[in-house]
Specification:
- The structure is a single chain.
- By secondary structure, this protein is mainly alpha-helical.
- The protein has one domain (3-175).
- The protein has helices at residues 3-15, 19-29, 34-62, 65-85, 99-110, 114-126, 129-149, 156-175.
C-alpha cells in the first residue's frame, strides 16, 4: 500500500473527534463565520501536516533502518495513547471569534496530535514524505470536517482508532532488532 493511501486512511480514522474538530464545532455553534473557520482549518492542517512529513523525510537520512522502525513504532504508540487518553477541551465560554487567535490555537493543538504523528511515522517508515504528507492532508482534513460537522459522534471512533494505533505501534516497535 502506498504511503499516500496508508496515510489517508489512517489519518482519517485517527483524526475523527480530535481536539481541533471539537474546537471548530464549538466555534461554529457559537456563531463564528463558517467560511473563516474552514479557511483557518485548511491552512493550519496543511502547515502542520507538511511539517510532520518533512520531519519524517529528514529523519530517514539520519537513522539506520532499525532505528527508523523503532521511532515509527514509538510515534504510533504516542499517537494511540493521545487518542485514547486526551479528551477534547471545552470551547471557551466567550470565544473571541478572532480567526488569528483560532489559527494559533489550532497550530498548537495540531503540531503533535495523532494525525501529525501518523504522518511522521508513515513518512519515516515508507521513505515517502510527499505521499505521506498528501495523504495526511487529505485524510486529516476529511476527519476534521467530519468531526466539526458531526460533533454528536462523540469520542468512541477516536478511542477505537487509538486502541488500534497502540497495538500497531507496539507491534512495529517490537519488530526492530537491537
Amino acid at each position: 500500500m502506498s504511503a499516500l493511501l496508508l496515510a489517508l486512511i489512517a489519518c482519517a480514522l485517527a483524526g475523527i473527534g480530535g481536539r481541533d474538530s471539537a474546537l471548530l464545532a464549538g466555534m461554529a455553534q457559537r456563531g463564528a463565520p463558517r467560511a473563516g473557520l474552514i479557511a483557518v482549518a485548511g491552512i493550519t492542517t496543511t502547515i502542520t501536516t507538511a511539517l510532520a512529513a518533512w520531519a519524517g523525510g529528514e529523519a530517514v537520512a539520519l537513522l539506520v533502518p532499525d532505528a527508523r522502525t523503532m521511532l515509527a513504532g514509538f510515534a504510533l504508540l504516542i499517537a494511540g495513547g493521545e487518542a485514547l487518553l486526551v479528551r477534547a477541551p471545552r470551547v471557551p465560554a466567550e470565544p473571541t471569534h478572532s480567526l488569528g487567535a483560532l489559527g494559533i490555537v489550532m497550530l498548537a493543538q495540531q503540531i503533535a496530535d495523532p494525525v501529525r504523528l501518523l504522518v511522521f511515522a508513515i513518512a519515516l517508515a515508507r521513505h515517502d514524505a510527499l505521499g505521506g504528507g498528501l495523504g495526511g492532508i487529505i485524510g486529516g482534513g476529511a476527519a476534521l470536517a467530519l468531526g466539526a460537522g458531526m460533533p454528536e459522534l462523540g469520542p468512541w471512533p477516536r478511542r477505537a482508532a487509538g486502541a488500534v494505533l497502540v497495538i500497531v505501534g507496539a507491534a512495529v516497535a517490537l519488530t526492530a532488532r537491537t
